[in-house]
Each structure stands twice: as structure tokens, then as C-alpha cells.
Amino acid sequence: MQSAVHPVQSLLARLKLRHLHVIQALGELRTAARVAEHFHVSPAAVSKTLAEVEEVVGMPLFERGHRGMRPTEIGREMLDGASIVIRQLGRMAESLHAMKEGTQGQLSLAFRTTSVHAHVAQAICAFRESHPNVDITIVEGGILELIDQLDEGVLDLVFAYDDPRFEQKSLRRAPMIAEQALLVVASVNHPLLEKKRLTAKELAEYPWCLPVQGGRMLYHLQAAFRALGEAPPTKGVRVSDVSMTTRLMQTADFLAVYPQHIATQLEQEGLVRVLPFKLDRKVEQVVAVWNGALVSRSAAKAFRNYILDGQAAV
């Protein structure tokens, strides 16, 4: 006697990839007409596909309203799963294409802090020796844009200061650099370097390369000065780029603030001097972030393992 097919197996056998694509599109576009236009089919075809999926699932996936379709609870669950399946299939297709072309796949990285630039640059060069055919791309973007790219699976790894916006169930984090003290640096010939004792009030009177408005470093700088009972510095130039900051400091006498890792690196390169002044402030740890809901591309997994294990410790 033949055993009955398990309900889960039955559901999987009846679901098609086109079903998932239509459900995902309905979740984004909200109407059958817009989805039909997107896929170049008729609205009736979209409605028929939705009816097929709802029959397979056995429950409504969307509520119909005058503002369009809204996913039900089970609809939201299916949208989350469909998104992961579609992205994972895209990643599999990409890997298969890479193998067919004789390459070792792709690796896409992004940075939101220069603290790890030197370390990751060394890791990339060492990694390329054993993986010469990996196509490595370094991209730029704001934190929310990079999170979207992680979510979509087009970005493999982000190095950034730890941030509440990384607290998503799909994202994984691993520490790279522990919390760092905030240091004040000066141009190499700055007159304050001749003084043995400095005050916050005195520092605030000089021109600074100030962090841009709304940035993490500006928040920490202002908080540190207020904790010392002094108004934060306001004179100088607002600049977010480290290379431009160091160029300005080589051209004229400026002060700036950096996490210890960056300040020490710049001082070792002879670009700045660290002032003997303590700011009782630390910046968040630097973390590596990736999408744990997707199976990592083989090149990305290999690089992440390399940079996070003992061989590449910061």
C-alpha cells in the first residue's frame, strides 16, 4: 500500500518559480495591473496565477482593498520565503556561470570606516594569490543603501562601525576592531605640540577639520567636549574624507579627531601628530556584516573565513 504524500511535499511539488515571482511582484507593486505591466502579460493572467498559489497554500495571501493588495499574515510569510528563494537561485545561476566561464566567482565589499582599510587591503592581496580568478569589487554607498544591497544579495560583506540598523534577523555580524578611544590629532608643525598641558577650551579656539553634520564622529566629538564642560569646536572646515583632511592638515595648522586605530596609522605615516589630550569617549566596535539568510557565494565565504580567522587578525 502506497503511503500518502506529506502535505509539505505536496505543496512544494505544486509550487512553481513563476508563482514566487508573481507573489513577490504583488507584494511590491500592490495591484494586478502593475504586475501585469511589469511581466508584459494580462491582468487576468496575474489573477489566475495568484488564484493557483492560494489554492496550493489553502489560504488567502492578499487582502483586496481600494488602495491595492495587502499581504495577509501567511502572505507576508510567503513573501519573505519567496524573496530568499529567488535571490538564492540568482546566486546559484551566477556561480554556475562563473564555473562555466572558468572563473572563481565574484566578491563584493564595502566600507563605512577607514579603520580597516590597511588590514583589508592586505587581506585582499593575500587572498588573490590563492584565488586569482575571483572578480573583486569594492563599492561605495550610504549605510541604508548598503544594507539594501546585502539584503538583495548583490553585496557580500560590509565593514562598518556597529550600528542598530544592522540588527535585522537576516544579517550576521562579527567583530573586527574593539571599541576605540577617540584621539585628537594635529598638523605635524602645529603650535599646540609645544605645550605640555592642554585644555578643551584652548583646543576649541583653534581651526579644526570638523566631521560633517549628522556624522558619527561629530556626535562623539561634541559629546566629549560637553562632558569636559566646554563648548565643542566650531571653527574650521567640515570634511568627511580622510585623505582630504590629511591634505588640509599638511597645508595649514588644523586639528581633527579620529578613532585610535586611524590616528595611530596616520601618525606612523608621518601625516599627523597625536596630541597628549584625553577625550573620555570611545567609538563603537568595527564589525564585518553579511547576509546570513542566503548561502554565501563560495568566494565570499572563503574571503570572510580568511579575514575573520587567526591568519588575518587585526
Descriptive account of the structure:
- The protein is an alpha/beta fold.
- The protein has three domains: 7-85, Arc Repressor Mutant, subunit A, CATH 1.10.10.10; 103-178 and 286-312, 3-Layer(aba) Sandwich (D-Maltodextrin-Binding Protein, domain 2); 180-283, D-Maltodextrin-Binding Protein, domain 2, CATH 3.40.190.
- It is built from twelve helices and twelve strands.
- Strands 4-3-5-12-6 form a five-stranded mixed beta sheet.
- Strand 1 and strand 2 (68-71) form a beta hairpin.
Indicate the radius of gyration in whole angstroms.
26 Å
Write down the domain tally.
Answer: 3
Termini gap: 63 Å
Total strands? 12
CATH architecture label of the largest domain: 3-Layer(aba) Sandwich
What is the helix content?
40-55%
Proportion of residues in extended strands: 15-25%
Count, helices? 12
Q: What is the CATH level 1 assignment of the largest domain? A: Alpha Beta
Can you tell me the CATH topology of the largest domain?
D-Maltodextrin-Binding Protein, domain 2
Compute the average pLDDT.
Answer: 87
The secondary-structure element order is HHHHEEHEHEHEEEHEHEHEHEEH
What sort of overall outline do the alpha carbons produce when their principal axes are compared? elongated
What is this structure's SSE topology?
Layout: H1 7-14, H2 17-29, H3 32-39, H4 43-57, E1 62-65, E2 68-71, H5 73-101, E3 106-111, H6 117-130, E4 135-139, H7 143-152, E5 157-161, E6 171-177, E7 180-186, H8 200-204, E8 208-210, H9 216-227, E9 236-238, H10 242-251, E10 255-259, H11 260-268, E11 273-283, E12 286-291, H12 298-308
Parallel strand pairs: 3-4, 3-5, 8-9
Antiparallel strand pairs: 1-2, 5-12, 6-12, 7-10, 7-11
